[in-house]
User: Which sequence fits this backbone?
């Protein structure tokens, strides 16, 4: 791809985000940061533009369509309004930015702008990966021939009204870049339009200070509507612990409803150091999502020697070959989830087999490979 810049363009790539959530509940914002940093390392002029107004507009539409509860709307709107205030945003970002640097070994060397909409007209390529931003760009009729929408999953199993709105956004003529073969087929795209997502290399390496605790299971419980599968995971935990008196379950995330049991410990929203420890000490990791792309936490768990059980979401088969380096189970079935955990926890030979066979998979999902495959997609569209 030609890296020459015309004088009228301020940036080669402007990456759009709604806000930075500096924790381990999701991977969308992390991908924006990884990609921006890697593109800058390759010599492109890159910046990140924060658009909190896009998130506010998206929440208002969801509430208007009654796709979310009032409690969900109120909590998330309060959070977004805090970030909408420039002074509050800058104070919080500087505080969180220091924590982000310490945890993720990232220099955050790219320029970051706040709500400067005029920058959209001073860049060659707009890149985004959230429905909030897609809705914002569509409503303001920004041209689509320089707008690249990184799509992770199809939302078919989300709340019906939300899913329909997202399908409508997918029909808008943004240039699509996807992360799985299933999504290539869904949109009938050329293989060149597939980007490999990334996981952070500092989390892949398990700490040697921690050893595996026998019969431990780690499960993320994320408050992302029905799509993150927390409801089914909690049901599975109840069934699992009722029938097995030697299993210990660890959970983490921002899901408000957790199961109270002597052998179920909820750590809530964790720091990266805490998450490393949980990965390093757990034998089995379970990804319960109903909607997901390539599940980043499952990849991180593999890197820390966990045997992975993953629901059959759109990107699961990008990282798991069933019964070779993990187990794929149906989405939303708490009975199967509980049964497969109980079955695997007793079979230490299979756990070791999955751990060994997972090592070759992890190398593919580096930030460098993410940027390379993304640029291949750009070359395809611009040729």
Assistant:
């Amino acid at each position: 791809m030609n890296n020459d810049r015309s004088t009228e363009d301020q940036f080669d790539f402007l990456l759009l985000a709604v806000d930075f959530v500096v924790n381990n509940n999701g991977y969308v914002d992390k991908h924006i940061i990884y990609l921006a940093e890697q593109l800058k390392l390759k010599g492109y002029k890159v910046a990140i533009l924060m658009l909190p107004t896009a998130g506010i507009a998206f929440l208002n539409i969801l509430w208007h369509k009654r796709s979310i509860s009032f409690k969900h709307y109120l909590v998330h709107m309060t959070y977004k309004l805090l970030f909408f205030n420039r002074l509050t945003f800058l104070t919080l970002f500087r505080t969180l930015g220091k924590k982000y640097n310490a945890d993720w070994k990232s220099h955050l060397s790219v320029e970051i702008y706040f709500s400067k909409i005029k920058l959209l007209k001073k860049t060659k390529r707009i890149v985004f990966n959230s429905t909030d931003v897609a809705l914002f760009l569509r409503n303001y009729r920004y041209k689509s021939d320089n707008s690249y929408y990184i799509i992770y999953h199809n939302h078919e199993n989300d709340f019906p009204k939300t899913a329909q709105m997202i399908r409508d956004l997918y029909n808008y003529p943004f240039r699509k870049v996807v992360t799985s073969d299933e999504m290539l087929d869904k949109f009938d795209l050329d293989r060149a339009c597939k980007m490999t997502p990334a996981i952070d290399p500092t989390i892949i390496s398990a700490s040697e200070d921690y050893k595996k605790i026998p019969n431990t299971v780690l499960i993320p419980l994320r408050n992302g509507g029905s799509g993150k599968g927390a409801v089914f995971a909690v049901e599975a935990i109840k069934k699992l612990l009722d029938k097995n008196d030697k299993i210990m379950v660890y959970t983490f995330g921002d899901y408000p409803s957790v199961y109270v049991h002597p052998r179920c410990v909820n750590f809530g929203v964790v720091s990266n150091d805490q998450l490393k420890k949980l990965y390093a000490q757990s034998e089995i990791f379970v990804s319960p999502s109903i909607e997901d792309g390539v599940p980043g936490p499952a990849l991180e768990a593999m890197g820390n020697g966990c045997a992975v059980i993953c629901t059959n979401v759109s990107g699961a088969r990008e990282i798991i070959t069933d019964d070779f380096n993990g187990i794929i189970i149906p989405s939303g079935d708490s009975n199967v989830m509980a049964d497969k955990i109980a079955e695997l926890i007793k079979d230490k030979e299979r756990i070791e087999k999955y751990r060994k066979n997972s090592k070759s998979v992890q190398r593919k999902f580096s930030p460098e490979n993410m940027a390379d495959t993304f640029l291949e997609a750009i070359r395809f569209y611009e040729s």
